Amino acid sequence: KKEIEIDLSDYNYNVVICNSNYNEKKEMNYIDVLLSRNIDGLIIVPSTENISIFKNIKNENIPIVVIDRLIEGLKADFVMSNNYNVMIEVVDYLAGLGHKRIAYINREVDLYHSIKRFEGFQDGLKKNSLNFNKKLITGDGGLSFEDGYLEMLKFIKMDSSVRPTAVIAFNDIVAIGAIRAIKDNNYKVPQDFSIVGFDNIFFDEFLETRLTSVTSNKKEMAKLSVKLLLERINGDLSEPKWALNHRRLVIRESTSIHHDSNK
Fold first, then answer.
1. Among 226, 165, 228, which residue's Cα sits nearest to residue 6?
2. Alpha carbon separation from 61 to 37, 45, 245, 249 (Å, rounded)
3. Which of 37-41, 119-123, 183-187 has the lowest mean pLDDT?
4. Residue 77 class from Cβ within 10 Å (0-12 exposed, 13-18 middle, 19+ buried)?
5. Are strands 137-138 and 166-169 parallel, antiparallel or unpaired?
6. Backbone angles phi, psi at 195, to 5 degrees
7. How far is CA 238 from CA 158, 221, 250, in A?
8. HEC profile for 189-244?
9. What is the per-residue pLDDT across 67-90, written as a single tens digit (0 to 9) for each?
10. Is the peptide bond between 63 and the residue preceding it cis, with omega within 30 degrees of 0?
11. Strand 137-138 to strand 102-105: parallel, antiparallel, or no bridges (unpaired)?
């Protein structure tokens, strides 16, 4: 949000920021409010891929840029992250460290970025000749510290023969919750469990064990979104466009070689 505001301010546009906290009803209300203010364009990370939230904007001919979601039938430009490929990279990295039982605290929602990330996880396991175990996939859609804590407890309670040695979390907050559960149960990161998060949030740097994470590359995403929006505002009437935001893995102290890998 901050990066988009800065980029648009450089072009003398006033920016109105609305945070729906992934609440569909709030989102629809915000869109109505923005329409009443005669906005020039809209950049949105919607909570749903249901086109119904845009029902009041379809006839307004307002440029729309959608981030990390795929909404069928919506006339808009899209900025997508390489969630599929970067998840394969994460699995490759952990497999290369000797981890054979890799778990995923997933966000089980029917959204494009979630789907592609899970597909990348599955194909990453297959690529590295690792078994897909449904017991090592958990998560009910939550994104909180508590969600990470509770889901990690499920893994900790497993028999050591099936317990994961590496865990990928849907975001860094979930990963930090998982780390707390590990430490509260007298295990260590990364000696007992390697942990990887997503988003590379700023306070990772202040953790006792700095978190290996996938950067969201917000600056690139902002620049791509603003570029597409300004092109439309300035009269570009071409077919809808797609732009790719490149996320990358940042390796820190929360991951290491699995100590049983040579046994």
1. 226
2. 14, 19, 26, 38
3. 37-41
4. buried
5. unpaired
6. -125, 135
7. 54, 21, 37
8. CCCCCEEEEEECCHHHHHCCCCCEEEECCHHHHHHHHHHHHHHHHCCCCCCCCEEE
9. 999 988 889 999 999 999 999 999
10. no
11. parallel
Rounded Cα–Cα distance for residues 172 and 148 (Å): 9
Q: How confident is the model at residue 261 (pLDDT cuts 50, 70, 90)?
A: very low
Q: Which residue has the tokens 């040579």?
A: 262
18, 24, 30, 33 alpha-carbon torsion, rounded to 10°: 180
The alpha-helical segments, DSSP class H, found in the chain are: 2-9, 24-36, 83-96, 112-127, 145-156, 172-184, 218-233
CB neighbours of 226 closer than 8 A, spacing ≥ 6?
A: 4, 7, 8, 11, 43
Convert the pLDDT of each residue in 239-260 to its tens digit.
Answer: 999 999 999 999 999 999 997 6
| Tokens representing residue 230 in the block | 């300004």
* Count of Cβ atoms closer than 10 Å to residue 13 Cβ: 16
Tell me how far apart the alpha carbons of residues 216 and 207 are, in angstroms, rounded to a whole number. Answer: 19
User: What domains lie within the chain, and their CATH numbers?
Assistant: 2-81+216-247 (3.40.50.2300), 83-215 (3.40.50.2300)
Structure tokens at 212: 């290996």
Statement: residue 62 has pLDDT above 80: yes
